[in-house]
Design brief:
- There is one protein chain.
- The protein has 401 residues and is of the alpha/beta class.
- It is built from 15 helices and 14 strands.
- It folds into two domains: 209 residues, Glycogen Phosphorylase B (Rossmann fold), CATH 3.40.50.2000; 177 residues, Glycogen Phosphorylase B (Rossmann fold, 3-Layer(aba) Sandwich).
- InterPro entries: Glyco_trans_4-like_N, Glycosyltransferase_grp1.
- It comes from Rhodoblastus acidophilus (Rhodopseudomonas acidophila).
- This is Glycosyltransferase.
């Protein structure tokens, strides 16, 4: 994988752990970051190989440089692992859809290939830059190549599965595996909060496309237009747009209402999440987000939180009556949807109960079994072999290339 390290990428880390518990040897190739600088380590029996990146891209030219550097390191590390312990299966987790280029030499040597489609990269590009152009069509070509090389495709939801079937023509080789959380780490004692100071919470990556700037503008609207100040906002996460949204909060004079924690793990993360009273999903309206299953949906429901979001099709389908949805796509619409929940503790409690009921359906153990069946098919093993019943297979498996 190229865009996040493990164990920070929860989906890939849970996949790696599922494979390891099934008795497989697992190596992950991913980028190094300030929070995960070690070039090599073994966590819970999973080998993690991290490589440097020259920059954290923001514009089109920056992405070309970043992806070229990543491909070089991915190819280099793949061959190192191949020489040391062998590779039977390579799993490429997008974005981008270029990782298949690093895998091609080993595929020619007989390795199998699984495409784990986290995002629709062409739609993601269009949402980020507001246009199509040459790079959009290059991404469509890279997606077609990745589909063509894949023995099996894993998608993050059923909407992406339909895309894989229509654009990739993969027939019975596509399985949807949702990124449901392992909820054990989310279960923290909720602190005794002041009933007149509810906490708006955001958990996730803070990139240009994630809508955290819209969250800040919604807080500005609540404070300076609606004159409602009996709340605070807690933004948990890091990313390339963090400093920009901190500056925006100062510019709009709402820095006293928003706390940006940066990157958190372990007990500190659990404690901050336990302080949330309302979960915010500010990801804006666009074709990419409309079909995306946000991790925040599953995590907020596991925490028993009412949720405020824009009216994205997949988000509404997953959240149902656990959410309140903005009428439009502006920060003002997000503020208008949030205000009734801030004012009404009974309404928050009712939606929180709906969220807990929803969370009961989001079972990672079931998804892990579906995921392991993909490897059964790829390796030609009987489908009944899952988890502890699985025999150790030779060679290395790469769930996060």
């Amino acid at each position: 994988m190229e865009n996040l390290p493990v164990p920070l990428d929860r989906r890939v880390w849970q996949e790696a752990q599922a494979l390891r518990r099934a008795g497989l040897q697992v190596s992950v190739i991913c980028p190094a970051t300030a929070d995960y600088p070690a070039r090599f380590e073994v966590l819970d029996g999973v080998e993690i190989h991290r490589h440097p990146l020259p920059l954290q891209a923001r514009g089109r030219c920056g992405f070309v440089v970043e992806y070229a550097a990543a491909l070089y390191h991915e190819t280099r590390l793949l061959f190192e692992i191949q020489q040391r312990r062998g590779v039977d299966v390579i799993q490429a987790c997008n974005p981008p859809d270029l990782i298949v280029l690093a895998a091609l030499p080993l595929l020619a040597m007989g390795a199998r290939f699984i495409f784990d489609q986290h995002d629709l990269c062409p739609e993601l590009y269009e949402a980020k830059f507001g246009r199509r152009g040459l790079l959009y069509w290059a991404l469509r070509a890279a997606e077609r190549l990745t589909y063509a090389c894949a023995d099996q495709v894993v998608t993050a939801n059923d909407a992406f599965r339909e895309v894989a079937l229509s654009r990739g023509g993969k027939g019975g080789c596509v399985a949807s595996v949702y990124s449901y959380p392992d909820t054990t780490w989310l279960r923290a004692e909720k602190p005794q909060a002041a009933p007149d100071r509810p906490v708006l919470g955001y958990l996730g990556v803070i990139g240009d496309q994630d809508g955290v700037d819209g969250l800040v503008r919604a807080v500005d609207h609540l404070v300076h237009v609606d004159a409602f100040t009996g709340f605070r906002a807690l933004v948990v996460g890091d990313g390339p747009a963090l400093q920009g949204v901190i500056g925006l909060a100062r510019e709009l004079r709402v820095e006293n209402y928003i706390t940006f924690t940066g990157f958190l793990t372990g007990e500190k993360l659990a404690a901050h999440l336990a302080a949330f009273d309302i979960g915010l999903i500010p990801d804006p309206l666009n074709p990419s987000n409309d079909r995306m299953s946000m991790n925040k949906v599953f995590e907020y429901c596991a925490l028993g939180l009412p949720v405020v979001a824009f009216p994205l099709t997949e988000t509404r389908r997953l959240l149902g009556d656990a959410g309140v949805y903005a009428k439009g796509g502006t920060p003002e619409d997000l503020a208008a949807a949030t205000l009734p929940l801030l004012r009404d503790q009974a309404l928050r409690a009712a939606l929180a109960e709906n969220a807990r009921r929803r969370a009961a359906r989001f079972d990672w153990a079931r998804e892990a079994r579906k995921y392991l069946r993909v490897y059964d098919k790829c390796l030609g093993l009987p489908e009944a072999l899952v988890f502890e019943e699985r025999r150790r297979a030779p060679g290395a498996l790469l769930p996060g290339e």
